[in-house]
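Lab notes, practical 5.
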Amino acid sequence: MAVSERGHHRNVPGYADSFWFKYVLSVIAAGVAETVTYPLDLTKTRLQIQGELSKQSKHKVPYRGMLQTALGVAREEGVLKLWQGLTPAVQRHVVYSGCRMGAYEWIRDNVLGREPDGSFPVWKAVCGGLVAGSLGQFIASPTDLVKVQMQMEGRRILEGKPARVRGTWHAFTKILAEGGIRGLWKGWVPNVQRAALVNMGDLATYDSAKRFILGHTSLSDGPIVHSLSSACSGIVAASLGTPADVVKTRIMNQPTDSSGRGTLYRSSIDCLVKTVRKEGVMALYKGFVPIWSRMAPWSLTFWLSYEQVRRLSGTTSF
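Output from the prediction step:
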């Protein structure tokens, strides 16, 4: 027996409340959300890279804004290039979203535990989001590295540079050949830092906002509550995660020497300092609009899909 938000009991099949069943459901929801919003992610990545060390580069900044960047990619490289790198992005969510969602719910229900009245304090939600996001992203970091490099291939070709990778498998094998197993985790520190902040904003905010709305309004646990909660989580996640996302993208995209070490930045702190010194503090929020513009519909699509597939499969609401 499971208890809903308003205390009504309903029967839940044993398999439907298992970790792995919920894992699969979260992957399905993440795949839908990623496919729908992926062009915004590619646009965000291009924006973050275009000003990198511009004072030392002879290349003119190609695009200035989100819309101009997206239209430029579609016009100069083809519309389908807006989805370049989607395969590793979806592969990433097979690991990342499954782990983060499963870990958060397990931590919430079995480690930190709810209060006697069934509530889950914000501080516990924050801790759960930090741990779940860090774990999921560390495991999925190699797929994120491949995705970022594939997203930049079209831009490199237009600048007259040779292509680095021909596809997902080639990218994985090339990274392995150049840097070994450690090379697959290049940039994992800022990657995990970003994921920790984003999930602290996403999971903790969604969970807390949903329970607040259900506890202080007459709304029932349905699409309206899920939409309002996801709107809150999207803006908080974007605000917390953008600086780490900028650092992560630049470290992952930088060239490497023969030993697999980056040639532009020694660490995430070094990247942060150089970025602020050369481009100003606001450079850390470069791409904030496309990040938020993507997180908002991604969060909405994911949470609506996830809650719906849980309901249809007979699993308890998140």
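Observations recorded by the TA: Residues 2-313 form a domain with the Mitochondrial carrier fold fold (CATH 1.50.40.10). Residues 1-9 have pLDDT under 50 and may be disordered.
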